[in-house]
Each structure stands twice: as C-alpha cells, then as structure tokens.
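Hi R.,

Here's the chain you asked about this morning:
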Amino acid sequence: MRGSMSEAVPVPIEGTPGAAGGGPLAAEGPPVPPPLRRRNLLAVLILLAATLSLYFFWLIYRWCTEVNGLLGRRKYRPMVLLLVSLLTLGGAGLVVQCFLALDLERLGRGRGTARRLPGLTAILAALSLANLVLNAPPVLEALRLAPPLMHRLAERYWLLTLLSATAGAASVLLLQRELNLHADR
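And here is the predicted structure, written out as tokens:
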C-alpha cells in the first residue's frame, strides 16, 4: 500500500469518455510532481500579516500544486482555484483548505506519518466557519441588511477583524504544518 501512494495514477482528460467529474477540482494531463517545499511557520505568519493576508492566495496556489504532487496526480487546478478564491474574497480558499486537509489526512494515515494532527479537516472546517461568521456583521452592515444585533456587532469591526485574522492564521499554520510533515519524508 505504501508504494501505491507514490505511483502515478492516470487521470482521464476532461471531455473524454470516462472523464470523472470535471469541475474545478479535476484536471487534465499527466501528473506534474513539484518539489514539496517546507515553509517556516513563523515566516508564513509574518508574510500573512505583512501582506494583509494576500499571501494566503499564493499559498492556495502552491498548496494545490504540492498536494497534486503528493497524490501523484492532478486533482486540483491551482490557477482556477486561485482565481475563484480571489473572486470570492477568500471564501472559496477556506473550502479548498478543507479539501486539501482531507487529502493530507488520508495520505498521512496511509503513510503512517508521525506527529500528524488527527481531525485536521474538522478543525479547519470549524476555523473556516468561525471566520465566515466573524465577517458576517460588517458585510451585512455594509449592504445595509444588518438587523440591530448585527449592527451592534459591526460597531466592533476591529475586534471582529482581529478574531477573524486569528482564525484564518491558525487554519493556514495548521495546514502548512501538515504539509511540512510530508516535506520531511
């Protein structure tokens, strides 16, 4: 079983008979295994803060490419997922993180990776949900759709932003930590 995880798996080209799914997660062509890059977690945190989280979008692109390499096939379409994440102001990126975490969890179990975080997908899903909930009051207020309670919450915009940034940074660092475990192999 260990050897089967690193072997290339043929993926049908989109539009051909037998092509599974299509969509933004499936991709055509032969596997392109990029080198898996170990990133310093402190440097990732500093870059997230210094770029006001724009570094997150670059990470989405790199993570998709790197997980494709770990899987030995092109499951994720990095450029499409990057563009969709940008268009949704990071919302789609939160979902992509959960899919990546799910694949990393499966890979870690299959490889017997030491120090992996069990339940990573559930943790990232909870952090992503918290992030979306924390961003709801200011968005609803800007759209003038906020009920009175949301209006009072939106007045604490800086606190909500700080809590949202904390949840976002935690999810990024947890996913990168898991990728680092695979880079050490």
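One quick note: The radius of gyration is 18 Å.

Cheers,
M.
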